[in-house]
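FIELD: query
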Amino acid sequence: MIYVALPKGRLGESVYALFERAGYDCPAIREKNRKLIFENERAGISFFWVKPSDVAIYVERGAADLGVAGKDILLEYTPDVYELLDLHLGKCRMCVAGPEDFRDDIARPLKVATKFPNIARRHYSAQSREIDVIHLNGSIELAPLLHLSDVIVDIVETGKTLLENHLTPLETIVPISARLIANRVSYKFKNAEITALSAALAEQTPEE
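FIELD: result
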């Protein structure tokens, strides 16, 4: 049996549909019930839903053999897992954004508000730019509007929220999408099953 941690929400539903098309379905998951774990012994697969940011923890710790996590989570927390496949779902980008008239004053540290402090630090470290990280958990766009920060580092999908708040993407750090990840021990001892599943998913994965 392969145990798979799926992210709750719209992305998770798209991911499960991909597994379904690849032949790794579990009909009970489509039923209205309060079950937490769904198994299909015939297909040798077991799914469970978790908070998107927790998927990598379940996989790294071995509670799941496989999981699907956003590239943003993998970059921010660097879990000790194998990244097997880009599923090309949940596409967006990690960006630096700021006021439309923003000009960087290199004479002082750049104030950066973000939910992703590690990504922000690595990005600006590569530019040898000194920054002051302000770690926020929500309403990141508010920070530059109230002069709490100069810029933000955040996920941008359509850019509509930025536009409505007179902000604009200034720089793309990295493209983001959902990735299939594997526990390192599971990949060794269930290699044939995991390789077959990964190949089946790859055949169903949307084109770039």
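FIELD: remark
The first helix runs from residue 10 to 21.
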